[in-house]
Amino acid sequence: MAEITTASGDKVTIGIGSGTSVKDLKRGNPTGENQDLIVDLLRYAIDSGFNHIDTAEVYTTQPEVGRAIEGYDREKLWITTKYAVSSSIIKKKSFTPTAFVEQALQELGTGYIDLLLIHSPPKTGQDYTIESLWEELVEIKKAGKVRFVGVSNFNVEQLQKVMNVSQERGVFPLVNQIQYYVGSDKLPIVEFSKENGIIVEAYGPLTPLRTPNEKLDVLLGQLEKKYDATKAQILLRALLARDILPITTSFKKHRLEEAIQTYKVDIDQSDLKLLESI
């Protein structure tokens, strides 16, 4: 995996997401108390060793991320956010990526964004095509308010369209963020991304803990005893070994500590191959 670093040069860690249950807490009951809970969770994650925070327009958590990072050295943090062409979930405030960046900078309380992603490919009939949307992200990056640009939930055909524009404009996607976990069947897009120098970020990396898979369950049970590690740590470590950067989320502080301690877990190549074969 190409190493990505914060503005200060620190290697970017596993990401702490502000989507899934975190965003649901705010959108379901946007009280001051719940917003404070999100801020407290993110600050705890930073204090535990995370330097990578993932948010998005549709999560509505950018203001909480902004509050959470107050008082920390901004250049030692990596902030990712995502632009959505449209949404049936929230009332959009910004309808172009350019306008969204200004909104995000204000809500995050920062002078720059480390990584701006297209949250999902535009659909037929929307205001943007994949090509025109990427053209605008290229211009945003050149303006200097975003360090890197990338995509999320793109398949091979969609990512190839981005690459075609990139070849002409000289700005390539740094990341393709997709749902991925041990046992996933999305190898074509993973391989295509890697072949083109694009880092794969994985959301939902702990899905196997909630989805029964007898073969994997047995193997995880064996490995957690062998390495004195949790099943979650084994799943995260397996992705890191494949040069895939996980994004994880939890409201339980001990789960966050567990996740960031994954870097201390060292799994034999033979066992990694067993996990990869699932």
From TrEMBL:
Transmembrane segments: none
Residues annotated as the enzyme's active site: 59 (proton donor)
Entry GO MF terms: oxidoreductase activity, acting on the CH-OH group of donors, NAD or NADP as acceptor
Residues that hold substrate according to the record: 119
Coiled-coil ranges per UniProt: none
Keywords assigned: NADP, Oxidoreductase
Domain of life: Eukaryota
Site features described as Lowers pKa of active site Tyr, chain residue numbers: 82
Pfam hit, one: Aldo_ket_red
Protein name: NADPH-dependent conjugated polyketone reductase C2
Organism: Candida viswanathii
